Amino acid sequence: MRPLAASSVDTVLQDYQPRILRRYLWITTALHLAGFVLPPMVGLSIRPETVAARTAGVLLGVFALVVLHRGGRRPSRRAYQVCTAAALLATPIVMSGLVLAVAQLLCAIAAMFLAMYFVVFYPKRQSRLLVGCLTGLMVVGVVVAPTAFTLVPVEVDTVTVKAAVLVVAVTCVVGAAEMFGSLTRTLIESASTDGLTALLNRAGFELAFRHALESAGTGQVSVTLALIDVDQFKSTNDHYGHAAGDAVLVDLANYLAGHMPRGALLARVGGDEFVTCVVGERHDELPGVMAQLARESPTPFSFGAASSTGEADPLTALYRHADRELYTAKQRQHPPEPPADEPSLRTGWNI
Question: Is there a contact between 156 and 150 (Cβ–Cβ < 8 Å)?
């Protein structure tokens, strides 16, 4: 079942993706514009095909920036698709009009950063497809370039120069994507994801919560938060071992992720405690949803909920009030101790 709740590292990255893409487009567009100014300053003429290629690159960059600006703080998937296509095309098109090998290699640096962006912000299969498309378009751009030469006084034919540029450029782009892009995403996942349940951890939840508040607008934003605690979790660990306790936590995490309202944030914030919240519309439905899930869950749990409207930084207060409600709920319930010889909880660690 596909989880309806926002519980993965992609929720955290949503806050950074438009900013990083916007900065990339600003920088590359400015560099393409600089290509019209710098060559005459050092006594080099600009060929018509170079002017056409750089103009196309600048127009694509400006177009993508306008689309991102119109998308606001949280651009739509369609906006990302349009901007990604523009970024993919801009650098190879500029490379197709360059005649200096060094200029083509400088463009390859921009492609390196774009490849790292793909690996960090897109799922693995999709990022590899995008990096492959970028590399292929870059190869086409260098091949169809009118000519290629170096600034050193050595006779080298055009084919050799282009081959050298392609080897260096492709190696740098693919290497940057696989090394630095993958490392960056791994570090982000480690810092914001719970290793046992694959939900967000406390740090990841707080980042996603702030992003959700910002995305909801500047008005009176309403939030409902619920703290969830597994019933008799200590008894499970004492009777059946920590492996059984881990299995209980994973089962509950999967159950909650598959049944929470769409758009709700979900995280494991420590031990047997989970947290979920809904920001904006229909936030007041969360306590009713949690009550129904508590009745139907195969893993017994208690919860406490709290709501807030219009506060600038409501998370601390919500935690405090929800924790108080959770304590009251735990006091009202007296679930029986689990049987001492329940075979369904036996594992290799406690047999």
Answer: yes
